[in-house]
Amino acid sequence: MSGVNRMNGMIVTNTEAVPEYDVEDILGIVFGNTVRARHIGKDILAGLKNVVGGEIEEYTEMLADARKEALNRMINEAKKLGADAVVNVRFTTSQTMAGAAELLAYGTAVKLRKV
């Protein structure tokens, strides 16, 4: 199933439909978010990378962890509604204050029926 993943027992996809299933009921929009702040040690390493160039791996890792956390929180909200899947999953980020950013995952929680 291309574009469809199972995460923590939940079908999660960025598409409107799940192959081999029909949407039986739309339960609502679910969200998961986390706010992360920069770390002074990572800022020093990032500053050095800025001088020599290259990927700032410390920030890449921090954002990957934030994405996983936001996704898990969204899935937990869907489970509370009794969902089988979350469709149309999207991510967005925003700066909440200097040195801190929010990562938000959202999608539509649905009940599915096998076709």
Topology overview:
Layout (H helix, E strand, L loop, with lengths): L3 E4 L2 E4 L7 E17 L2 H13 L4 H24 L4 E13 L2 E15 L1
Parallel strand pairs: 2-4
Antiparallel strand pairs: 1-2, 3-5, 4-5
The separation of the N and C termini measures: 15 Å
CATH architecture: 2-Layer Sandwich
Rounded Rg:
17 Å
Q: What CATH first level would be assigned?
A: Alpha Beta
Strand order of the largest sheet: 1-2-4-5-3
Question: Which fold does the CATH topology refer to?
Answer: Translation Initiation Factor IF3
Order of helices and strands: EEEHHEE
- The percent range for helix content is 25-40%
Distinct helical segment count: 2
Described by the principal axes of the CA atoms, the overall outline is elongated
The description of the largest β-sheet is:
5 strands, mixed
Count the E strands.
5
What structural category characterises the helix and strand content?
Answer: alpha+beta
Contiguous uncertain segments of 5+ residues: none
Tell me what the structure shows.
The chain is elongated. It has a five-stranded mixed β-sheet with strand order 1-2-4-5-3. The protein is α+β, with helices and mostly antiparallel strands and 115 residues long. The longest helix is centred in the middle third of the chain and has 24 residues. It has a single domain, classed as Hypothetical protein apc22750. Chain B (Translation Initiation Factor IF3), CATH 3.30.110.70. The chain contains two helices and five strands. The mean pLDDT is 86.
